[in-house]
Amino acid sequence: MKLINLDxxxxxxxxxxxxxxxxxxxxxxxxxxxxxxxxxxxxxxxDIAHALETYREWTSERMARAKLEALLTIxxxxxxxxxxxxxxxxxDFWEGQAYLVKAGNVDRKLVYNSLGPACRxxxxxxxxxxxxxxxxxxxxxxxIDFEWLAxxxxxxxxxxxxxxxxxxxxIAQRLPGLVEANRAAVRRFEELRAVIVKPASTxxxxxxxxxxxxxxxxxxxxxxx
Length: 225
What we know:
The chain has 7 helices and no strands. The protein is mostly helical. The protein has a domain at 48-193. Helix 2 (61-75) crosses helix 7 and helix 5 packs across helix 6. The protein is flat and about 110 Å long. It starts with 16 loop residues before the first helix and ends in a 32-residue tail after the last helix.
């Protein structure tokens, strides 16, 4: 009993259409796989580049100053309105990142791995400010994506069995350290802008004092000519 009959197998000429159709299908499949892999690599590269740019922006001098100002208002017990005014840049930063993540334009795992704790800590710090802004604007959508992203990262932490809960007690414990860390960051940015002025030439505008001229000692019995 023959399982495969090759007696009338035709690869070239009439009757070989099935073979070339199969070959064309295999070539197309390989091409599609190669294109998919290329697109996936490009998407991964774009996600990594965005994650790096996001981290650079979050650690920039502008954000360091905004974070320090907001942290100081919270540390000093200022009213929620003062914290809201100081933290607008921070809340808008996270709102923009969360919007991109929710729309699928940015891989949420990359954002979580680079800035996940920061997102959760700052939502814990700014949740009262967000509620105040919602009440004043009569709009419950203020920083809603920021809140959503913090919730997504909280789910990731629970799935990974992370010990940090980022509750009020934890944030109060971390607050002095956050103030000092951002104060040090601002100081470093200022030091990087410091310029040490050093003349390129060794010439000076004032002539240095000259040493006194030494004269030959006179010999006894001789007068100068």
